[in-house]
Amino acid sequence: RNMSSAGPEGRKKMRECDGLIDSLVYYIQGAIADHEPNDKATENCVCILHNLSYQLEIELPDTYAQSIYMQRRNIPSNDKTPGCFGTRSRKVKEKQQDIPLPEEKSSPRGVESLWHSTLIRIYLSLIAKSTRNYTQEASLGALQNLTAGTGPMPFAVAQTVVQKANGLPSIRAMLHVSHPTVKKTAVSLLRNLSRNTPLRSDIAREVLPDLVSILPESVPVSDIVCETAASICYTLYNLTQSNSHSARLLLSADGLPKIIAISMKDSNMFSKASRAASVLLYSLWSHTELHSAYKK
């Protein structure tokens, strides 16, 4: 576990070690099957996999990168790729939906297992069944790492989490735990998921009211709460920017007073959350049909 956090070279060597990742996955599967998701060894295994999934898309060996991204080269690149804040262009939305997803192997080995749907479902199972904060945080963090990029692999993982494995209810439950780091990681994962245009309506329907409910009533008082509030605002930005129905959902959940309160503090310590809240307000105002509701 310590070695897996030693940097890029350490991660590379561990990913290349024959049988290591397979053994970790095998152990966790056994723990879940035996209804023992809370033992320390399971926590260690998940934390190692979490670390090995960090920067995975960038650090993939050439052979995997070529097989995963080969089809993508055939996509015409006339339109700009959507960034963190997306775009309202219909063409870009269609393009994002047309990205060919990497083919899954029925029996993945080694590094292939790190983004395979089997392990994604294991993470979601641990999030739902484990009561160890470190295990929950590492499972959420691994999914956060895997959904952090902009290529076909992160999009495929996001689609598996939201649509194929029905993972949103388990992630939503983590928004209401008392442990601040688990909550922060759950929000960061949702922020990554919300960058995928085709998944936004599902995410908004499932978790938007919960995100609003955990926003602080006023300016956050600690760094970690401040970062969490900023991530919530950017997630809400992604969900509402081109969807007036989601903006109305935010309004009906009494989110506007909270967002205004957070946006009005401009001290350096809280500028991250205030800036994010201001960006969200600016985007909400672009829904002109809601202006009268906002004013009320």
UniProtKB/TrEMBL annotation:
- Compartment annotation: Cell junction
Predominant location? other
Residue ranges, compositional bias (Basic and acidic residues) = 94-107
Q: Please list every transmembrane segment annotated in the UniProt record, as residue ranges.
A: none
Q: Does the keyword Repeat apply?
A: yes
InterPro entries noted in UniProt: ARM-like, ARM-type_fold, Armadillo, Plakophilin/d_Catenin
Give Gene Ontology CC terms. adherens junction; cytoplasm; intercalated disc; nucleus; plasma membrane
GO terms of biological process kind: cell-cell adhesion; desmosome organization; heart development; intermediate filament bundle assembly; protein localization to plasma membrane
Question: Source organism's superkingdom?
Answer: Eukaryota
Which portions of the sequence form the region Disordered?
Answer: 79-107
The UniProt keywords, alphabetically, are: Cell adhesion, Cell junction, Repeat
According to its UniProt record, which protein family does this protein belong to? Answer: Belongs to the beta-catenin family.
Its recorded name reads PKP2 protein
**What species does this protein belong to?**
Chloroceryle aenea
Could you read off the lineage of the organism from its UniProt record? Eukaryota, Metazoa, Chordata, Craniata, Vertebrata
